[in-house]
Specification:
Length: 419
């Protein structure tokens, strides 16, 4: 019998890690950041900020990272954002308020990802942006910005945060509305640092004030998007119980837990506390029999990065699961909508993308076959979870991509089944 047991601690939250490194680089004085994600994406943010003159100590497991905020200056001709969409889009916001020219680029996957969703509002604020198409590389000349009230066509925390960062560095008021509420880490951090952030009827506003950004100390909670893989592996096991410690449970991020509950698996939250304005808990999970569900368009932003692993779980449930309006998955690190469906079919499950919806039919045939991850970390981890079933024979096209968001993923997955 395949039993789970023991305790795992997911790595630091990726979204919060990017934001605290950026804010610390913009702050006056020395900030101390603990619990940062040591994955490649956060290292990309630190690299780009160092290229702009920020003083950031080495990011490694267990280390408190020291950041000495300085006035940003252009040091390098090209800022390389690696695989990280968050680095590219949030940095565009930061650069919009700087009085120099900078060119941003990234790896092949990042260069394919849309940037106009961010450059469009930044242009309306007065940033001068030179582009060759809807993507990187881009050259931005920031400077004197004007106020913006913007209604975003996509529910994207990256778009919202880029505009908030432009308001912050350009010292102009901004107001943003979005079709559904996306993750609110930027808003929470602004509030935590005493920066003028307000919400009214779903509209988020930033109002500049004369005071500069204060330096700060923060402990980044564990990433629920990484914890989701361990929770999913535990749900698929045949016995035992797993404790996942120190997980951020911000309600704009916990859609995975809500949907898991509807599918028949209960995750208990214990030891609830607050860390730098973010709710944190330890999670207890046990194996469960799953059933299909409908995931609504409004729920998608709260679990957008968990669709691959939820889809894997849905393929083991009873009946059909539908994810509504997941067209955004086409422009993530890979075309996740098509690749989730194609890979589920490749291992013998029934799955199909119809328009912008994803349909999965649950079953209990042993999953067997080769999975093409397209170097997408979340596809690699989702299908590795499927591979923990005793009947499974899953071959991943590569495993290295997990270093983007969860460097110790395979060690932790093993640990869940070690006791
Ligand atoms: C992120 C927001 C999401 C998410 C990404 C991280 C962020 O993207 O998919 O992994 O840190 O703001 P969108 O805001 O583009 O949906």
């Amino acid at each position: 019998m395949r039993r789970v047991g023991g305790v795992v601690r997911p790595p630091g939250d990726k979204s919060i890690s990017h934001r605290v490194v950026m804010l610390a680089a913009l702050a006056r004085g020395k900030s101390e950041l603990s619990g940062l994600l040591t994955g490649d994406d956060v290292k990309s943010t630190a690299r780009v900020l160092r290229q702009l003159g920020a003083d950031i100590s080495t990011i490694r497991d267990g280390a408190t990272v020291q950041v000495a905020g300085k006035r940003l200056t252009p040091h390098a001709p090209r800022l390389h954002c690696g695989n990280s969409g968050t680095t590219a889009r949030l940095m565009l916001g930061i650069l919009a308020g700087q009085k120099f020219v900078a060119t941003l680029t990234g790896d092949a996957s990042l260069r394919r990802r849309p940037m106009r969703r961010v450059t469009e509002p930044l242009r309306q604020m007065g940033a001068d942006i030179e582009e060759r198409g809807d993507g990187l590389p881009l050259t931005i000349r920031g400077g004197k910005l004007r106020a913006l009230t913007y209604s975003s066509p996509v529910a994207s925390a990256q778009v919202k945060s880029a505009i908030l960062f432009a308001g912050l560095t350009g010292q102009v008021p901004v107001t943003i509305t979005e079709p559904y509420r996306s993750r609110d880490h930027t808003e929470r951090l602004f509030a935590h640092l005493g920066l003028g952030i307000h919400e009214r009827d779903g509209a988020i506003s930033y109002q500049p004030s004369a005071v500069s950004i204060p330096s700060f100390t923060v402990a980044v909670p564990g990433d629920i998007s990484s914890a989701a893989f361990m929770l999913a592996a535990a749900v698929l096991a045949e016995g035992g119980e797993l404790l996942v410690e120190n997980v951020g449970v911000n309600p704009t991020r916990t859609g995975f837990l809500v949907v898991l509950e509807r599918m028949g698996a209960h995750v208990e939250r214990i030891n609830l506390r607050d860390e730098g304005g973010e709710p944190v808990a330890d999670l207890v999970v046990r194996p469960a029999r799953l059933r299909g569900t409908e995931v609504t368009a409004a729920e998608i932003p709260t679990l957008v990065d968990e669709v691959p692993v939820l889809a894997v779980l849905a393929s083991r449930g009873a009946g059909e699961t539908v994810f509504r309006q997941v067209g955004e998955l086409r422009v993530k690190e890979s075309n996740r909508l098509e690749l989730v469906a194609a890979n589920l079919r490749a291992v013998g499950a029934r799955a199909e993308a119809r328009g912008n919806d994803l349909y999965i039919e649950g079953g209990d045939a042993p999953p067997k076959g080769r999975v093409e991850t397209a170097s997408d970390h979340r596809l690699a981890m989702a299908f590795a979870v499927l591979g923990t079933l005793p009947s499974a024979d899953i071959r991943l096209s590569e495993k290295k991509s997990v270093a983007i968001s969860y460097p110790n993923f395979f060690r932790d997955l093993k640990r869940c089944f070690a006791s």
